[in-house]
Amino acid sequence: MGRDATAGRGRDLMSAAEPTHGPPRRTQVLIAGGGPVGLATAVELGRRGVECVVVEPRPTVSRARPRCKTLNIRTMEHLRRWGLADRLRERAPLPVSWSQDVVFCTSLAGRELSRFTGVLGLAPDGDRFAEVGQQAPQYVLEEVLREAVRELPTCRLVLGSKVAAVGQSEDLVSVTVEDGAGNGAVVTADYVIGCDGPRSVVRDEIGARYVGGEALRPNFGMVFTCPGLWDHVRHGPAVQYWVVHPDAPALVGPLDRKDTWWAIAFGVDRAAGERDALRFVDAFAGRPVRATVLSTDPWTARMQIVDRMRRGRVFLAGDAAHLNPPFGGHGLNTGIGDAVDLGWKIAAVLDGWGGPGLLDSYEVERRPVQERVILEATANMRVLSTELLADNLEASDAAGAEARQAAARRIQETKKAEFHSLDLVLGQRITASPVLPPEPEPDVPCGAPDAGARVGARLPHVFLEDGRSLYDTLGDRLTLLVLGDTAVHETALPGDAPVTVVRLTGPVAARCTQVLGARLALVRPDQVIGWLGDALPEDSPALVDALRGIAARRAASAPPQRA
Predict the structure, then answer these.
(1) 3-state secondary structure at position 132
(2) What is the H or E stretch that residue 213 is in?
């Protein structure tokens, strides 16, 4: 599926098996937080030759709380671009082929109420995407990304340390980094990115604050082992089992194909969860079982976004910038999108081919995505197992059959969008940005099968005759995609244009032309369409300058040129 990673060995300043070392005194980018978003940002930067330091308090990746488990199609497409998709799939305990289902049931050994198939982007759909989604515990992703950061010669991991303070001038940022013993060191950087989660020090240091609310109902997460539990599961393999049981309405799923499971008991606070955890497992299972609780994680859903994501040379990404309920699996993936957007833009500015407009566009482009994800995830939370409880669901008589049919109808009506959300994952379109030329709104919702290609949307995907993805041909900067025998005079582009020209011919060019509705496309490093047309505009240098954040306002008026 993915391409092989090619990178040299990097430098790890501290790991569990190595002595502690301090951070360097100077770097181009310092990233606070080495979770998935911080590590993804480092990979995006490091692959572009940017020096970056990742400061993370945890010496090792924790497997106690698997947290996020859904890697969506866009995240897997980015992992492919980084050469890591195959590596991650090899480590994932649940192969995509094992199951693509979500089951609603009265218990694992009880009655099935309904199911969804081909969920969460796990099912192939022809040419529509380069990679299917993947179910994998967050720690698997973190371990793969840590390895990738170590392999990049310009990246450093500083583990067992934390960012304690941030100050900036017009030209640089000064960061105080403290190790586990409280010893401080000052690092100067061109830019700082706060990926340090809900308790972000970086967010506090730039005066940003969350705006929004949180749910009233508590939830109790746990990880447990239960040898032989699979022998009692009546519903076959599934990536999630929604248990509609009056003693323990819950969401349960396997972490592997052996004995390890995760669960969320809805409406259960810390005290009740700690006291009754094993009783809840019996209720999930639908019979007494022998289980061992490995970890617990009480939590309450939050629907919040910061009032600002940037101050000068300091930016926020991931959970440090936005929080949403986990239902639908969008939170981590949205953070990876932040990392990609901000990573390539900072790299372009540091490399000299990008202008300040790129950095100005980060919040403008990402905030609408983050806000929509919060709204969708909140909508998914309105109906959980607790709202599906009803009398007679396990009865064997006519009343039971009627109750199960009613439950199935409600499940299909209220939960489909949670598990089939490709319009959200693939159909997001940037409609207002200082670095994109304006286009009228499409006549159909973006993400619909016939929406077509649009400026600001993800480049539609096709596979080439040799099995490669169209995305595999794109350059690391801007790419001019030329289809068929379309004449393009490259002298029309500015001499220093950061543009790779990719020419496709034959049947694949005809397919791409049909999908794009144009014979030329300028594509950004994040696979977003920057311009479409059949001939380069007369003022091509101004268009390229707009896309790279130079004199963006002047150039944004360049209209698409159609034959």
Answers:
(1) coil
(2) strand 210-214
